[in-house]
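Standup notes
- DV: blocked on the single-chain target, sequence here:
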Amino acid sequence: MMIYDKLFPPKKIMLANNKIVEEKRTKTPFVLVLIAIGFVISVNVTGFSFATLLNRWQEFFIILNDMIPPNIDYLPNIWKPLLDTIKMSLVGSLLGSLVAIVFALLASSNIIKSKITAGFFKFILSVLRTLPTLVTALIATFVFGLGTMAGTIAIFLFSLSYIGKLLYEQIENIDMGSFEALESMGLTKLQSFRYAIIPEILPTYLSTSLFCFEGNVRYASILGYVGAGGLGLLLNERLGWRDYSSVGMILVVLAVTVFIIERISEHFRKKLQ
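- DV (later): unblocked, structure below
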């Protein structure tokens, strides 16, 4: 923004005491122009069409109307995929949150003095975060086959990267006085970590893990689109057959399930604060 200040120098204002102060020019017009240019470029690159949006928006409400009322008779077919979705989310989140502790410990530069080791684990967590969960699940289906195993692996990797990053950042901002004191008394790094660091990070760690789990329930519901099992597989099938009343029933069950899990998670997260 230094170039902007040179092109549009500050406005000089003389006060009542004859002192001159400078008021910088607002950058709002410049920012708005940049946003407008970016918007035009994105529309041209993506092929977005306002005409199509205006002509087809009513199709959404036609499909929504076909979903109401939901097909209650289809409910028995939903329970098993729903249970698979919850199991994928629970197991993947649990394993990911546990392994995240190890990765966070090894990525923390204030505990691991080797910059190469800490940098390596930070790099691994960064790479895992760049992979969309759907892409990870798709790759997992080629390795482990179709089914919930692939979905569980995808959720595990996402939970590991998400919780691991937040955890090592928190560890690096902790006062290391008690940790160093325990080390000076002859305790190992692992013992010092257990008694000095874990009590400090435990409430935030548990809260983050619960938040990650409730999000993973939603993510797991669409992994079936790439063959990773769960409700997504059923949802994709019903949409393919244009069975919108059954789709409506699936969405209602999913919404109620997510709502219940979110309320339970929110309750426990408040207790941890």
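- Follow-up: The first strand starts at residue 11 and ends at 14.
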